[in-house]
């Protein structure tokens, strides 16, 4: 077996509606509703399912907790534009721009926190 890509991940959050609004406003993700009223965020070929703390669907992680995630999201926008957009939305920058290494090589990253204090890394691969 060989894994091709990540399809979706689940974030445990305090308020799915507030989280969906933040990711849509700040990161341009598309909020969607599926199943029996479940919330998610679609972007590219992936999505983030939102699960309200204490109300998870089975099966689920052993200890789903708001604020326990550390995600790296890739953008084609240059780091200075990422910084400017975050500042324009009034989102504090946790760190960056800083040089890191992504799955495919060198990246420049900017870090922020979402409403549940998950650490979100916005990364841009360097162009040759």
UniProtKB/TrEMBL annotation:
CDD domains per the UniProt record, alphabetical: GLOD5
Sequence ranges assigned to domain VOC in this UniProt record: 5-125
Pfam families reported in the protein's UniProt record: Glyoxalase
Protein name: VOC family protein
Lineage start: Bacteria, Bacillati, Actinomycetota, Actinomycetes, Streptosporangiales
């Amino acid at each position: 077996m060989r894994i091709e890509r990540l399809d979706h991940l689940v974030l445990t959050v305090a308020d799915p509606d507030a989280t969906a609004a933040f990711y849509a406003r700040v990161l341009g993700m598309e909020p969607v509703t599926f199943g029996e009223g479940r919330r998610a965020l679609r972007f590219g070929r992936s999505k983030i399912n939102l699960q309200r703390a204490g109300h998870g669907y089975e099966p689920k992680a052993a200890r789903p907790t708001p604020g326990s995630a550390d995600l790296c999201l890739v953008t084609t926008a240059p780091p200075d534009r990422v910084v400017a957009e975050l500042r324009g939305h009034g989102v504090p920058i946790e760190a960056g721009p800083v040089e890191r290494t992504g799955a495919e090589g060198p990246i420049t990253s900017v870090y922020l926190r979402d409403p549940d204090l998950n650490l979100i890394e916005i990364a841009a691969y360097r162009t040759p």
